[in-house]
Automatic annotation (TrEMBL):
Protein name: Radical SAM protein
Keyword annotations from UniProtKB, A to Z: Iron, Iron-sulfur, Metal-binding, S-adenosyl-L-methionine
Start and end residues of each Radical SAM core domain: 1-223
Organism: Nocardiopsis exhalans
Entry annotated with the keyword Electron transport: no
Lineage: Bacteria, Bacillati, Actinomycetota, Actinomycetes, Streptosporangiales
């Protein structure tokens, strides 16, 4: 059930973040400390990717902390470790950033290394209030300034928006904003309870369904905004209609390896990186400074938490009518919501998958 190869690898170039978003799942002490990935870790990872025989490019996703708090010269050295692979189109760089630090120099950097840029922004200023700095000042104007630099340099970007209990009831406000932003697409993450974020306000599933229903209405009425969740569901239905449902039924789970600043490897969910749990060996399968990543990943199917997650996915397959579309949910959500992996339904899957499908079904009258 778990793929022997990976299509993307997530790297943490630094633990530091210049913001203190109220829903962040990372522990505060980590986000306040600058621990940068040594060049040797990037070099070891590149050597591991080099041994993987893939027809498609691997996405090397720089994630944080806030990746752009990494000193630029150091970030360049990290990225340079992948240059032989990038020049052969065997990897491509992606970065997920809060955009507050984007300036002309970062734009030149993105252009030089052909980065795909993802920006985290939750909507207009009034909807973006969870994104604040360490002095509790809103980040909105700094995010929009960063985005204006991207636009000025002609750099395409996508957006990720966390929808909170405060914004879920304002779908038109968010959709209007993202239609005008100029992003290639937006992904809506209904706020999740995970990691350090475990005390936030509950979101009513009826509001979630109304949100998705409004989104489908606007797409139906000609909105040109690309929404990740709609693309995925409509893509699934197109495959079902054209007799290609087996693609979804036989899909293997991508291990999605995540590499910490020190080279430690966790799989399935980047949110598990840095989480302490002696029973699961802190979710670490190995370290790229000691072994190549593909070798480390051969252990994944035999690792306790991966086996338990696969058991949970198997339970989903047997019991859930949404399984073929959903593929069994996210390991981190199951763990953080219930304390275990061998389980099925979570708030995350109800909001992100089930209510999405129900909203489209309701709209279509089925
Ligand atoms: S929707 Fe939930 S219960 Fe159903 S397959 Fe997905 S994770 Fe499992």
């Amino acid at each position: 059930m778990i793929a022997p190869h990976f299509h993307s690898v997530i790297l943490q170039p630094t633990t530091l973040c210049n913001l203190n978003c109220s829903y962040c799942y990372l522990p505060v002490h980590e986000r306040k400390t600058r621990t940068e990935m040594p060049i040797e870790v990037a070099q070891a990872l590149a050597a591991g990717i080099d041994t993987q025989n893939m027809s498609e490019a691997v996405d090397v996703v720089w994630h944080g902390g806030e990746p752009l708090t990494t000193r630029r010269k150091h970030f360049r050295d990290l990225v340079e470790a992948f240059e032989p692979l990038r020049r052969e189109s065997r990897i491509r760089h992606c970065v997920q950033t809060n955009a507050t630090l984007i300036d002309d120099a970062w734009c030149d950097f993105f252009t030089q290394y052909d980065f795909r840029v993802g920006v985290s922004i939750d909507g207009p200023a009034a909807a973006n209030l969870s994104r604040v700095d360490w002095s509790n000042r809103p980040a909105s104007s700094r995010v929009e300034r960063g985005i204006s630099h991207l636009r000025a340099h002609g750099i395409d970007f996508t957006a990720i928006c966390v929808v909170t209990a405060q914004t879920i009831t304002h779908p038109h406000t968010l959709l209007d904003f993202f239609e005008g932003l100029g992003a290639k697409s937006v992904g809506f993450n209904i706020e999740e309870l995970e990691g350090a974020n475990d005390t936030r306000q509950h979101i009513d599933p009826a509001h979630v369904r109304r949100f998705w229903h409004t989104m489908f209405d606007r797409i139906d009425n000609g909105s040109t905004l690309r929404v990740r969740e709609a693309d995925r569901l409509l893509g699934y239905l197109a495959d079902v209609r054209s007799g290609r449902k087996d693609r979804w039924e036989t899909a293997l789970l991508d291990p999605i390896p995540t590499i910490g600043t020190n080279g430690d490897v966790v799989v399935l969910s980047p949110e598990l990186l840095g989480v302490k749990n002696a029973h699961y060996d802190d979710f670490v399968l190995g370290n790229v400074l000691s072994e190549q990543l593909p070798t480390i990943l051969t252990r994944a199917p035999h690792t306790t938490y991966v086996r338990e997650h696969l058991d949970g996915v198997h339970q989903c397959r047997r019991t859930c009518e949404f399984f073929t579309f959903c593929q069994g949910g996210q390991a981190s959500n199951k763990y953080f919501e219930t304390g275990r992996f061998t389980t099925t339904e979570t708030t995350y899957c109800r909001n992100a998958k089930q209510e999405l499908v129900r909203a489209l079904g309701e709209k279509m009258g089925v």
